[in-house]
Each structure stands twice: as C-alpha cells, then as structure tokens.
Design a protein that fits this description.
Radius of gyration of chain A: 24 Å
Helix content of chain C: 25-40%
Order of helices and strands of chain A: HHHEHEE
Largest interface: A-C, 71 and 92 residues
Structural class of chain C: alpha/beta
Oligomer: heterotrimer
Radius of gyration of chain C: 21 Å
Number of strands of chain C: 11
C-alpha cells in the first residue's frame, strides 16, 4: 500500500483509532449537545417504560452508563455537515410496488391463534384493559 | 357566512366561543386491507379475516393496495385539496393489544393529500367554509372487547389493517350544529365519490372531536380530544356537553388539561380516558418496509376525469338550470341518489313541479314508511308518469296525490292505478253539465243568494260539483261551465 | 475419498446425479457430523426426520432423472428464517417455542430447488451481535482454534451457527442474513465464503426482522462456485416484499469463471485504519496483487465518510429494531410472563424474553426516535447515510469493484469482547458501509493469520452486480486456495 498522503483522510482514520482506544467521545459541535450523551436514571426509566421493558432498580445506573457510552460514540455524526443533504429514503432506485385490491388472504383463524399464549372463543385474551 | 356572535354561549361570567376541529376516520371502500389481502367485510367471526401480516407475525411484510391509493386521491380531489405526488408512510409506535405490530402504519410528515376545503350548509340557509388541513392513509386497529370476561379483554383483529382515510379539519367550526353539519357534508362528499360508505353504525366513519372554549377574540385555549364519536347526533351532544364542562371549569377558576376523553352516549357525557393518561411519545419514523409512495400527474388526472359532480356544483346547477330555490336544491343534493332520481323525474317536465313532488311527496312517504330511496316502491319513471298524467289533464293535483299514495302502497304504475280505481279525471262535458245541473237544482236558495250579489259563493258551488263527481271532474272544465250556468 | 459431508456442493450434486452417492447417504453423513459436533453448538434445532424425508424424495427424483438445481443438497438454515412447522426462534427466549405456520421466501425457493433441511442454525439473538455470544441458546464455537492454543474462539456473528456449520462440514451450505456484516464477518472468521447480495435481491418475507432497511439474506459455502449456485437459487423478485427488486437473476454460477481482465479494482484509502493488524494490511495488498495477476488494475478511490458508517449504523439499526421488536408482546405468540396488569405483563414478558444486547439496542433505538431527539440522531443518521451511499456512487465511477479487508481482526476468544459493546461493534467497521449503501459484498478466505486463523477479503460491487463479485472472488480463491479446518477437535470433545 502506498503511504497515506492526504492529511484529512488520515484524520478520519485517526478518529477510528480514537474509538478503538475508546477515549472520551469527540466533543459535539452544537452548543449544549454534550448534555445529550449523558443519560440519567430517569431518562432510562422513561425509555424503558416506552419500550415496555422492565428494568430492575439496581440495573438503572449501570444501564445509564452503557447507553451513554453508545450515545457518545454515535454522536460523532454531529461533525458531519449535512445542511444540504436529504435523508436517504429509498435504496438502489427501488420503487413502491402496488398490489391489486383482491381478497387473497385471511380465513385462517386457526393459524393466527395457534401460537397464542392465551385465547378464548376465537379471540386473543389479555389482562383486562380499562379505557 | 353566518353571524358568529349568534354562536356564543352565555356562561355565568360572560360569553364564550366554542372552537371545534374534527379528525374524521373514513374507511376506504376496498375489498382487501391496506397492506394485506384479508377481507374488509363487516361482521365476520373473530379473527377470521386476519392475515399473518395483520397479526404482525415475525417476518411478515406490508404491500400496499393500489385501490386505496386511488380512493385517497379521489377523496382529496373531492375536497378540492392539494394532491401530494410523493408521500411517506411512517410508523406510529405504541403498545396496545389491538395494535399487533406495536406500531400503526400511518402518514405523519408527508400525507398523500394536503390542504383543501369543505363548504358546510347550515340549517339557517347560510354556508360556512371549513378548512381541511390534510388527509392521510393509515391502518385501522383491531377491536378489544372488555365485557366478555371479568378479568380479561378479548382481541379481534378483523379490523386490524383496514384502510382508513384520516381527514383533519382546521379548527374552523364554532358550534355543535356546525360540527354536525360539517360531518354531514363530509359524509355526503365521500358518498358521492364512492370512497367511503359513511356508515357510522358499523364504524366505517368515526370522528375524533377537538373542543376548546375561549372568550370571543381571545387566543386558542387548551383543547380536549373526544375519541371515536360515531353518529352525527353524538357529535352534537358531545360538543354541547364538553363545551359546557370546559366553561364551568374555567368559570370556577380551574384550568383545562389537554386530554383524551370518551363520549358515553348512554349518559350524554364525556369522561377522561384512563388508558390514554400516560404521556405519549409515538416515535414516528418512515416505515423501512415501505418505500415512498409516488405517482405522476397523469395518474391524478385519470382519477380527476372520473370524478362525479359533487353536491356543491350540483346544487348550483339545480338552482340555475331548474330555477329551484337554494334550500330545495340543497335538500335534493344532500345525497347522490335522490339528486339523480330528481333529475330523471325532471327531465322533459316542469322542474319545479318535479322538485316539489320529490322533496315533499316522495320524501314524506319514505320518511313515514321508514324507507330509504333505494327501497322506494315508486321509481323515478313511475313518478314521471304520474306527472305526465297531471300535465295532460288526466289527473288533478289532488287526485294525483291519491294516486301517488296508492302507487307507493302497491308498487303499481300511475296509469294502472288510475285505470284500476277509476280515478281518471272526468273531462266529458255532458257528464259535468249534468252534475252542475243537479247541484243548481238541489240548491235553489244558494243560487238565489249568488245571483243576488254574493259571487264568493262560486267556490262553494265548485266544491259541490267536485264532490258530486267524486273529485274526478276536471276543475279546468268545471269552472267555465259552472260560471256559465250560474250567471246564465 | 472425501467424506460426503465435506464435498463441495457442486461435487455432491455431480455425485448425486451420477448416482455414485445417494441423497440419503449424504444427508446421513451430515446428520452424523452434526451429532458429533455438539461442542460447536451450531444448531438450535436439528431436524433429522425432516432431513431424511427430504432426502428420500430427492433420491426418488434423482432416480427418475428429474433432479432440480439443489436436489438432495443438505443445508443449514439460520434460525432467523421462518420455516413452516419447524421451530423458528431467532435465538431468543421470546420466540423460544414459536412454530410458524408459514415459510420464508428464501427457504421456500431452496426447497423448491430440491434442497434438504438439516436444521436451524444458531445465531446472535435477533441477529444482534458480532460473535454469536448473545444467543439465548448459548454461544457458537468456531471450529478453528489458534495454533497451540485450545481456547474457544467465536465464529463471528450474527450468522455464527451457519458459518461454523459450513466450516465444520456439518452441511454443504447455509443461509445467513447480513444487517451490518453478519454474513461476511463470520465467513471471514471461519474460512468460508459468504455473500450479502444487493439490498432487494433476496426477499425478506418470512425472515425475522432486525433492521428492515439494512437486512439482507445471503448464503455461506465452502467455495465461491457453491456460493454462486446457492445465491442463484435464493435470489429473485417477491411480490410479498415491497423492497424486493423486480430484476431478473443472472446465472451467477456461470459468472464465476468470467475472470477480471480489464476490471478496475478500487482500493479505498479510508479503510486503511491505524491500529489494523499488519497481517491484515499485508493480506489486503496480497489480494490486490492476485487480482492484478488475473488482469485487473488497481485504482485508489476515496470513501470520505467511512469513519461515520458505524455511528450511523448504530443509530439506524437500533431505531428500526426498537420498532420491529415491538410485536413481541406476549399477546399473539411467543413468551408471556402473565400478570393481572397489561402493562406489567408487557414489561415482564419483554424483560424475560430479551437478552442484554437486544435490550440495549431496543432502548437506544427508543431513545434516538423519541420526542426531541429524532432530528439530532435518526434524521441526522439518515442524512449521513445518504452521504455514505453517495461516496460509493462516486467511487464506482472510477472503479468496477472495491477490495477491502472483511474484518479488522481474526477470530477472537469467547468472552474477550462480551462486556465491551463498542469494541464489539468495531468488528463491523468494514462491513457496515455496504449495508448502509445497499451494496453487494462478498467475503472470500484469502489467508491465515500468524496464529493460523483464517482471514477474509471483501469485495464490494455496484448494485445488483453480484456476478462480478463472484468472478473476482474466484480469482482470489484460485490463488489463495481453500481453507478447510484440518483439526476436527470437537469430535473428540465431551
């Protein structure tokens, strides 16, 4: 391989190296952004609730640390100038196919219910919901 | 435009203005669901119209129904709205047992239809223009039954994945009546377009009603959303109750909390929904299983070319073409079928007479019998035939009403009823003269009175002659003959 | 004579057609090898009855001269593919007992081509991992060991069971899925050939979703020609997947010997990361030399946003996963930890059903999509992703293929990176960009490390140009040779 000539590219390589050594994440360019990467217990509690995953009390602290580390890692993206960039929407020029309006499925209640942990009279059964 | 000040509600501390916006969910009239091939038919056995896609089995993927796209565009055109040739399906994430995937596929930032408008006809004859903010396609959820078991709710996914158009109005409505009138008009447009059957009992059209109150001219106050109101009457009741409730809270020094409420139709009240109390964070993002929905202008143009004449245009045409009054025209165009019925009756006949017969006699009889137009025993051709018999002098207006009643009762044609019952108008001069002569002979005193200077008695003699002929004498012939004999 | 289970697919197909080997014998040989390979833990479920029944039917067709492309070929199927009537677990407790009433398109095509199902291969839970240590059914062990060192090594992930099964000769080929490198990285770490085709080439229908915009099915084989045959039989348009490409599938097997004369091979500068082992750098150089020897030319290309690929990936993939995994709620299928309160039931079910890495990613994904953070994370990532995709479009103006290492290291010891998520994520540094851009990538074994562990080279191509990848991969393979496991130590293991 020819030696590295482009200093800018070398710097990007260096960023990767930084990550490998897991130094403190590269500081964000945005003001106040540093706060983003630090997840507190309450935030973890909130997202765990949103995701409907029970987290035990003693897990919040270590989990907050782990997640903060990952967020710190991904926040490097703020270095990239995307002011004039449209988000990627479709890959490889694929376009949305449309199907014909025809009844071609259903009529398989047995299949639909076969794996259900609880069912009654052809319905799925869940703990009572109060509206 | 109607006078807004007339809509104000008097509270204990002054007047309040109600501000209402509606989010209407209209089920697309498609055979199969939005993203699966399962049937949309109403009333099937639980979970019998569910594909593995609808039940969100692992690895199942959505494929969009072309007809639903067309119907959304068609509806957008009917609402005079901007059609977005590129739109995006997003996932709205939340957990609920009748939402199998844990997300609803909907359109958030880029709906298929943008801004439009609806002209609402109010009972006082005025109109009001209501802004449409957007229309987007989304999946319906399944149905949870809470009253089948003491400790469990049951879930039926037959509805899960059925295509809905969510039509969001601007907060342009100012009273319960206006809200109901808007919904009525929207329903009429959808039914004209054939994109939704508007059947509120079966849930194919439902409204979420956003209500807030404010002092006239003040900025918008916090609103409450009343979920799933499923009739025009309930919309009206819900708004009335909710606006009064909010006024009372504010007048008692309280504040309105933004919340989702449920309308209890048995009590005519709204109440807070416990299940919706938790703050939502739907985490919308573009559904990666679906690429952006794109179509060209030619697609839109093809649909536009098949659009029927809509209620507003039809009403305007009825006024200009047939010389009808705005109110009467409005009554006739409220639904597509009666308007078509009217036009086929009016064709080649007196349009005002036809309008009167359709909107008074026909609608009256239908109402009385509790039937809709499709069940009418009298066809448009039948009513036309009746009108022709009036025109050619076979029937008087009065006789015609009797004939119509019999037609409605028996389903027979006008001529047949006339022949059968001998209701044909008598236009034979000899027979009429004989009847006149008998009336004159039997009422010598009255004749003397008439001839002595009381011409107003003429009407009484007319009545006697008609009575004597069983109402069948042609009044147009009775009149000159009677006059001649009395004056003679 | 080579044991039947160690034949290449092409060799076996030939022997089956020549009737010098029966499908039943071949299947038995694989089942016996699997029975002796418990120490590798490559399978979640083995389906001997089904396999032998499949083989019997294959023999009947072979006897009648009606053999299809994969008649009688025994395969392992990554347990992320739903197989009708056969437990499909995604290596998760939450789907531990799930028996799908449907078949994935990819496997349906394989059975329609006459292939035999040996069983469901182990993987990282929901394909989230790079070492196969996150499986709810225990880690997969790499058939390779370091020279003079008996420590167990990881096979890579997430398709670790598929890779290990192919490397150890437990099957003749296997399916995998690749969301961030889950086919190519384990292929590199086990000395097998693995291809992730273009996004849209293979149907995703019936594959348990991890990150829908990145997931792509592919295959493992012991040589390039076999991989080409298998991909040909799995690829193709599927009306049940809205992201499936409506394009004809070329005969990849016929493209294998097409050569690379005149092709321009791009060497992306940014893949030369500081801290990469010298032997991998050397192997990369060697690979280029081989391709030059075969008539190709080298060109320097630039993919400026390479360093941003991993952070981009670790926003998009968890975000999509957090939503894709919401369906595991204990209502319609899968594990349920019952409770009188619905929300508590959801929370307990999902806490018990998901392992640590899955939980971590679902939480990160939930966070980056949540109100107030969407723009800074998810939207930003989709924009950077567009830049990454554009980098490739620009690069492919100057070259026909890109050559790079597959992974920054050889197989590592079990537990070595288990508590270091980011260190683990870095394993995918060279593979993730192709997923973000939707491009095809092939990993082909090219040499051994100083510790005598296999190392792969990766070829990346233009969208839907897998054929050129196979041709170039074959040229490397021709020069590097194959890398069969020489020490079948696991057969003696308890």
């Amino acid at each position: 391989m020819p030696a590295e000539r482009n200093p800018r590219l070398a710097r990007i390589g260096g960023a990767l190296l930084d990550l490998r050594r897991r130094r403190a994440p590269i500081t964000l360019a945005r003001p106040g952004a540093a706060a983003l990467s630090k997840l507190d217990r309450e935030t973890v509690r909130r997202i765990a609730r949103l995701a409907r995953i029970r987290v035990e009390e003693n897990e919040f602290e270590p989990l907050a640390g782990e997640l903060s580390k990952i967020l710190g890692f991904v926040e490097q993206l703020s270095q990239v100038d995307t002011a004039a960039v449209e988000p990627l929407a479709a890959i490889n020029g694929l376009t949305l196919p449309w199907r014909e309006d025809r009844v071609a499925d259903g009529g398989k209640a047995d299949d639909v219910l076969a794996n259900a942990p609880a069912r009654a009279q052809g319905y799925y059964a869940v703990p009572k919901v109060v509206e | 435009m109607s006078d807004p000040s007339a809509k104000l509600i008097k509270g204990n501390t002054g007047e309040w203005e109600v501000v209402i916006g509606l989010e209407v969910h209209a089920q697309v009239l498609s055979q199969a669901k939005l993203f699966s091939g399962a049937s949309t038919a109403f009333g099937a056995a639980p979970n019998s119209q569910v594909s593995l896609v609808d039940a969100a089995f692992p690895g199942m993927l959505p494929v969009i129904n072309a007809f639903c796209i067309e119907q959304a565009v068609r509806t957008g055109l009917g609402l005079k709205a901007k059609i977005n040739r590129r739109s995006v399906f997003d996932r709205k994430n939340y957990f609920y047992p009748d939402l199998p995937a844990g997300y609803q596929i909907s359109q958030y930032k880029h709906p298929i239809v943008g801004e439009g408008k609806v002209t609402v006809d109010l009972p006082d004859g005025t109109t009001r223009r209501v802004g449409i903010e957007r229309l987007h396609l989304e999946q319906d959820a399944g149905k949870s039954l809470h009253d089948q078991h003491p400790k469990q709710s049951y879930v039926d996914l037959n509805r899960a994945g059925v295509a809905l158009m969510e039509i969001v109005s601007r907060p342009d409505l100012r009273s319960a009546e206006e809200a109901a009138a808007y919904l009525r008009k929207l329903r009429a447009i959808l039914r004209y377009l054939g994109t939704c059957d508007g059947n509120m009992e079966e849930g194919s059209m439902r409204a979420d009603v956003n209500v807030s109150v404010r002092r006239p001219g003040a900025p918008l106050n916090t609103r409450c959303e009343i979920k799933n109101v499923n009739s025009m009457r309930f919309v009206q009741q819900a708004v009335e109750y909710e606006s009064r409730r909010q006024i009372q809270v504010l007048e008692d020094g309280g504040t309105i909390r933004q919340e989702t409420r449920l309308f209890d139709s048995s009590k005519g009240e709204t109440r807070s929904m416990r299940s919706k109390e938790e703050a939502h964070d739907y985490r919308y993002f573009p559904d990666p299983d679906l690429l952006p929905l794109e179509f060209d202008q030619a697609f839109v143009d093809r649909i536009a070319a098949t659009l029927p004449e809509l209620p507003d245009e039809k009403k305007a045409r009825f006024v200009s073409q047939y010389g009808l009054g705005a109110y009467e025209a409005g009554v006739l165009v409220a639904e597509r079928e009666p308007a078509e019925y009217y036009e086929s009756v009016a064709k080649g006949r007196d349009p005002k007479l036809a309008a009167n017969w359709v909107s008074v006699e026909l609608f009256g009889q239908l109402n009385k019998a509790g039937k809709d137009l499709a069940q009418s025993p009298v066809s448009a051709a039948g009513l036309g035939e009746l009108l022709d018999l009036i025109k050619d002098g076979t029937l008087s207006q009065r006789l015609a009403k009797d004939v119509f009643a019999l037609m409605f009762e028996t389903g027979k044609g006008a001529a047949a009823v006339v022949a059968e019952k001998g209701l044909k108008q008598v236009s034979d001069t000899g027979a009429i003269e004989a009847a006149i002569d008998k009336v004159i002979a039997d009422n010598a005193a009255k004749v003397a009175e008439y001839r002595g200077g009381k011409p107003t008695l003429f009407g009484w003699f007319m009545g006697q002659v008609m009575k004597a002929t069983g109402g069948k004498a042609n009044p147009g012939m009775v009149n000159p003959l009677l006059k001649k004999k009395l004056d003679g | 004579m080579t044991a039947a289970n160690l034949l290449t697919l092409a060799q076996a197909a030939k022997a089956l057609r020549a009737r010098s080997l029966s499908a039943r014998e071949l299947t038995r040989a694989c089942l016996d090898a699997i029975a002796k390979a418990g120490a590798l833990n490559a399978f979640v479920t083995v389906t001997p009855e089904r396999a032998l029944a499949d083989a019997e039917r294959a023999d009947a067709r072979l006897a009648k001269g009606e053999a299809r492309a994969l008649e009688g070929i025994p395969l392992a199927i990554k347990d992320l593919f739903c197989t009708q009537g056969v437990k499909s677990t995604a290596a998760s407790r939450i789907l531990g007992e799930f028996v799908p009433p449907y078949e994935s398109t990819v496997t349906e095509k394989l059975w329609a081509a006459g292939a035999t199902l040996l069983g469901k291969a182990n993987l990282d839970e929901f394909a989230m991992g790079s070492s196969n240590e996150t499986s709810a059914f225990g880690p997969v062990v790499n058939p390779w060991r370091r020279q003079g060192d008996n420590r167990k090594l990881v096979p890579g992930g997430s398709s670790g069971g598929s890779a290990a099964a192919v490397a150890a000769g437990l099957c003749l080929g296997a399916t995998g899925t690749d969301t961030g490198g889950s086919i190519r990285q384990p292929a590199s770490l086990t000395g097998t050939v693995g291809i992730k085709p273009t996004y849209g080439r293979c149907s995703r229908y019936g594959i348990v979703a991890f990150a829908s915009s990145l997931d792509q099915a592919g295959v493992f084989a012991r040589d390039v020609a076999d991989a080409a045959i298998l991909l040909r039989e799995t690829a193709g348009h599927d009306a049940r997947d809205s992201t499936s490409a409506k394009l004809p599938v070329p005969d990849f097997a016929a493209a294998v010997e097409a050569g690379v004369k005149g092709l321009r091979i791009g060497i992306p500068k940014e893949y030369r990361v500081e801290g990469m082992p010298a032997e991998i750098e050397a192997l990369w150089r060697q690979g280029m030399a081989w391709l030059k020897d075969a008539g190709a030319q080298a060109v320097d290309v630039s993919l400026p946003h390479t360093a941003m690929a991993l952070p981009t990936y670790y926003i998009i993939a968890p975000a999509e996963a957090s939503s894709n995994l919401a369906r595991y709620d204990g209502v319609r299928y899968g594990l349920r930890v019952a409770d009188d309160d619905l929300v508590t039931q959801y929370e307990k079910t999902r806490a018990a059903g998901f392992g640590k890495e899955v939980r971590r990613r679902v939480l990160i994904g939930t966070y980056v999509l949540s109100a107030g953070y969407y723009d800074a994370y998810y939207l930003k990532a989709q924009k950077v992703r567009a830049l990454i995709a554009r980098d490739f479009v620009d690069a492919f103006k100057a070259c026909d293929l890109i050559l790079a290492p597959t992974a920054p290291n050889a197989a590592f010891a079990m537990g070595e990176k288990a508590d270091d998520p980011i260190g683990m994520y870095l394993n995918d540094v060279f593979t993730v960009p192709a997923n973000l851009a939707g491009l095809p990538g092939l990993s082909v074994p090219a040499g051994l490390s100083a510790e005598a562990l296999p190392l792969g080279l990766q070829l990346l191509g233009r969208p839907f140009d897998e054929a050129t990848l196979f041709a170039a991969g074959r040229e490397i393979e021709r020069r590097a040779g194959l890398f069969p496991v020489s020490d079948r130590w696991w057969e003696a293991a308890p």
